[in-house]
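Researcher: First entry.
Model:
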Amino acid sequence: MARDIHEVLRSVWGFPTFRPMQEEVVRTVLGGEDILALMPTGGGKSLCFQVPALAMGKLCIVVSPLIALMKDQVERLKRLGVRAKAIASGMAPVEIDNALESAAVGKVDFLYVSPERLGSDLFKARLPRMPVGLIAVDEAHCISQWGFDFRPAYRLIGGLREVHPQVPVLALTASATPEVAADIMERLAFRKPRILRGSFLRPELTYWVNHAEDRLGLLLRIAQRLPGSGIVYLRERRGTVRIAQFLQHHGISAEAYHAGLEIAERDRVQRQWTEGSVRFVAATNAFGMGIDKPDVRCVVHLEPPPDLESYYQEAGRAGRDGNKAYAFLITHHTDGDRLRERLESTYPSLAEVRRVYQAFADQHAIALGSGEFEPYPLDLQQLARRTALPQGTVNNALKALELGGCLALSESARTPSRLMVRASGTDVHHLRTSDPVNGPLLEALLRQYGGLFEEPSIIDEEQLAHTTGRSVVSVRKLLAGLDRNGVVFYRPRSNEPMATLLTPRQDAARLTLDPMALKERKQRSSVRLEAMLDFCRDTSDCRESMLLRYFGEPARERCGRCDRCVAMAKANTVAGPPARWLKDEVPMINAPDRP
């Protein structure tokens, strides 16, 4: 018998009530129906599958492409006492096998899976034995060929439905046009179409577009005249450091954040910003996923994103506490040409894709017909040298290979050190008592970490070094030696991006990508880009209304807050009182600085 959903919400999360729309999604799933939930950023999507799964008492398979977010949710659930595991690119076979077997025998409540892993033999062999009660598909727009982040590996979700046809599917996304929503339901073989659409309206958020020659000067006025914390988004890494230094130079606490920073540095920046000791983070879009800071007062885009979906998600990180917040988009007359050029460069030729594929195989000595589901470190600089191609071209060629289903790319998401004991208890006891070098280290491991004989656990080499009186370098060398000798499985932490081959290595000269698929993908990207540029232009239309219509929601009355509404209201004062819908005006960011 299913547990009461409100009791689950209170006992596990401590929440007295659901947010708007959450309970309806939960009850639909418990009724055994498929449903697509369109919930804007910050709407609490994860509880929509976590609560009903715990109420059912059955396994929930969560398909997600965001490795960093997947790991974050698993750790959060574990802290709440919920049994959760994740299977993603970069894991060793012993870790994957252990997690899948635990799921198959009912020892896991939530199994998070990256989409490319659904096609592995290990996963398919265990799937029929898994007591699945719910399939949750996060970032569901990725399954649609019309989606802004289409991923071929998402098509493997159909295999879950074939094995467990009666299990309901909950598809979740923060942004989907009507066309994408219809395609999601078709691809996931919904037994009958059902959409629950949360409003994309954010009444606390003001959208404000500025056309400026001096973007930095405008950014400075925003930072000086608006209180609270903020995010400044740029599309390239090198710009984040320059902007952070610019703000620091003018007395505003700011830090840079991008995927190329060391783990410790990214953790420090995120922690200090979350705690409030740093006001602004200048970041690429690597910053934002999984961040739940409610009191962000502004998000500033110093250039337009490639599409309105990305813009809405990034801007929506402001004002999650329901208080007044601003989304500034600062544009320049050169943006359109530059974004179109960037779009062209993201589609390399087939010859260039083949060169990169061959160089990648040579770099890691991958034999023909081998390497399937093996993760490999990704060194863009070395690939650029091997191919004599610019790094940007190499990166886009790898993305083309990913979209073609040849490999899966993981961002340089934090991967902590993990260890599991592989030797028998008798052998380990012998080493602990007779080996003066490895014995104390094994003793410290078994005392500090539980369950090492059952499954890999996250370990801290610095803590082990302190306990054993050795250096961190020495501890890592000893652990690597124990791994080579089969005593433990040890995977040191990594900050490197990884590429996982999804098919056995092919002959690069015979590698083909569907030309029509590439052409259609490029056309869809171009359409989304032009919609973004239309939003940036001066117009008589309300910015909020434009966004609502794009996502298929009927526009209400003018917002009265955006730059266009304020400009029209001011124009109307010549003939009479301000327009009735003028509700607010952005701080005086366009006013000249006082002497």
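Researcher: Second entry.
Model:
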Amino acid sequence: MSIFHFQLIAKELSIATRQVEATVDLLDGGGTVPFISRYRKEVTGELDEVQITAIRDRIEQLRELDKRREAILKSISDQAKLTPELQKSIEDAKTMSELEDIYLPYKPKRRTRATIAREKGLEPLAMLIMNQPPKSNLQKEAQLYLSDEKQVNSVDEALAGARDIIAEIINEDKDARAKIRKLFMETAIVSSRVLTGKETEAQKFKDYFDWKEPIKNIPSHRLLALRRGEKEGFLILNIEPETEAATEILDKQFVLNSSESAAQVKMALEDAYKRLMAPSIETDVRMGTKDSADDEAIKVFAENLKQLLLASPMGQKNVLSIDPGFRTGCKVVVLDKQGKLLHNDVIYPEMGDSKKMLAEQTILACCAKYNIEAIAIGNGTAGRETEDFVRKIGLPNEITIVMVNESGASVYSASPIAREEFPDYDVTVRGAVSIGRRLMDPLAELVKIDPKAIGVGQYQHDVDQNKLKTSLDDVVISAVNAVGVEVNTASKQLLTYVSGLGPQLAENIVKYRDENGPFKTRESLKKVARMGEKAFEQSAGFLRIRDAIHPLDASSVHPEAYNIVEKMATDQNCTVGDLIKNDAVRKAIDLKKYVTPTFGLPTLQDIVKELAKPGRDPREKFETFSFTSGVNKIQDLRVGMKLPGIVTNVTNFGAFVDIGVHQDGLVHVSQLSDTFVSDPKTAVKVAQKVMVTVTELDIDRKRIALSMKDTSAKSNTTTNSKSNNQAKKKVEKEPESQISFQEQLLALKNKFR
């Protein structure tokens, strides 16, 4: 690998060349991003996951560039046209566009107008005209090329053929293309118009029926919207600068004087630009801007997904989960603390008084029988109505009622994963199970669903699907490894994303666990089929074993560092367990004594920090949330209403917020904050609880405009907490007595025996 690549990446990321080289060596050696960022800080100079991922992606891009460079050099060499100057030019090319521009004159091509002209022997005439002699008689010169055999029948035909050759030469000139490409990127206008006769069908693209915007200003989401309109056959899209500006650039490069030949060159370059160069570079620019728009959209999607995956878990509770519905009823399931399905039923609270009463009895009986601690209700169709029903049936106050985002639950319920988990149950039961498990641990459940189905993206079906998959996989891997995985309870799907594992090893771990019982030590993972030294190295630190024989097996301390921790304990005349329990003992450790070439202060500091809270969950503490009582549908809204909500999606143009009316409202980017921030989108995150004000309503089009202007980014947390508490007070009844939760459950059990 060329040192120049390392230097280039280092310059782009503002880090040292040695950091790039060391990171690439680790990646090439099979290291994963989470492992390298957490356990090889001394090697990389404490690079984080973002920097390591950037190095990984950039080195892959540069290697692809090198492959293309080698193929081009071979192609030109095979043509016996490779000169030292040309070779140096190819080797110095920094981008794929620059490389392809150099190669263009040598690239095997289909039969063109210039090719035909050359076959007619007109190239010498073209070269004569290109030289633009001040005094020449073109009519006389052109007559020399007339030939019945070669089908050149007139002077005009000869000159036209010569211009075709000149046009191709101009189009293939790398300097000219670079200048025109720069003109496109700096001054081109993106314009769109509706296709005649499609006005009615294309209403969702109405804003773009007659649209113009400079390419350098157009945001990624708008470019993707325009491209979608073009792809669906509703819009005609163009990207082009002023033609006069382009031809003026070419004039300066190719027109040498005001001779008769120069006039022919001018005609040729105008043809070259219009027929060859402009369409070609517009295609390049379309691809380049599409790539940039894709990157931005994927970045937004990835950040949203990260926030959703790392949403606060309620933890291990006995949960009653409801997948709401009107006509088809509400599917009810009961899950134990480990998420195991214990019971399922169907209730019809919206189908008349008798069925409503039966539904009430069913819920109360389940809560009593299974010691229910929380109720999860899907936020889809009939969600708010079901929530109102449940809140009014007289449940103990200690039972937490939570609306859960069910996006993607239907995708999971029909998936092979769900069929494998619940072969004897239909999709409605599986969907309700997914909703309940999401409340307990969003990360563990969401990894079973294709991230694109979760619905937190922006034009996710329009972007490069390979790049999208890579990015979203990176996010899931990062989230899973940041939290850590309990190896004795984790699903195969969750284990798949652990550093160094993958689907086959994940399946082998589950199989070994089923056949041999729970793992007692990390070391015993080596007995799993195909768990080699490298896979163990990469994964062990992220796999937790609760109540293990060795106390560090429940932590993120890597087994390779156990000896150091044990040495610390020995030096302090205590056990490893004492180090974990006693803060004073930990503070007495002089970390400098334990520095080695492999373990420096950064890693040692991480170890001591982990000893304070072994296996700690980095996710925020779970907080309950309630929508405003009585506001269940868009018709209940009024301009000026202040409502609690949950952010469901963040885009480049604003944030979508669920306020409990089955239709998310949009907080435009201009309405996100009172205070100036460099990027207003950073003020909100997916799954964040916020307070919003209704500013506009369009009931017919189901559009709700919201504002967060009265809640600054700095005070969001406090204000949101207060508003959520106020909202909760509105919907929760006053406690009827001070009897305990267990006593209330006992009373319910006696009632329904």
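Model: Note on the second entry: The first strand starts at residue 189 and ends at 194.
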